[in-house]
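haha ok so turns out i had the wrong file open the whole time. this is the CORRECT one, sorry everyone. sequence first:
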Amino acid sequence: MSHSERKAMVNCDHGGLSIAKQCKVLRISRSSFYYQPKATSEETLAIMSRMDELFMLYPFFGSRQMTNVLQREGISIGSHRVRRLMRLMGLQAIYKKPRTSDPQPEHKIYPYLLRKLPIKQANHVWCADITFVPMQKGFLYLVAVMDLKHDGSSRTGWFFSSCPWGIILLDRILPLTETPRMRLIGNQENNFMTWD
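then structure:
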């Protein structure tokens, strides 16, 4: 049983057992029972907001570089606090890690289904990709649909979606095509749509 579940079991109105004895039986300290977490201060929220803005501009910044930039901007903050706030916000520097191309042995390897498919005309094979665009509150997802045989007259398109699975909103993709018969071909990295 977790600490929070045991803490919830303490009954302040119990006539037979005091709170101290209940805490002892449940193996939690009385100080943790009485502890009320403090709300995050406005100063900390402002620092976290600035850290988020900096991380969007420089996603390769670790805690040391983030500390240096914040201190240059006149914010009095140490590296330990920046590291704690980055961990709290889920920010981790993006950098090349060793052996990133080695596949995991338990992952299934999907075949590349377009390898032997001749693409001779437009509107035959399409590809789609999705990315997110940060907004003031949350994210919008940008879905781009492109014809792989692009000759200037073929169509490409894009649309925004508020849900990350916007790529499966085929009612937005189908008007881009002239042929209604469609097969979806995909793997972990690519999503292709082909028409017969």
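Residues 125-194 form one domain.
again sry for the mixup
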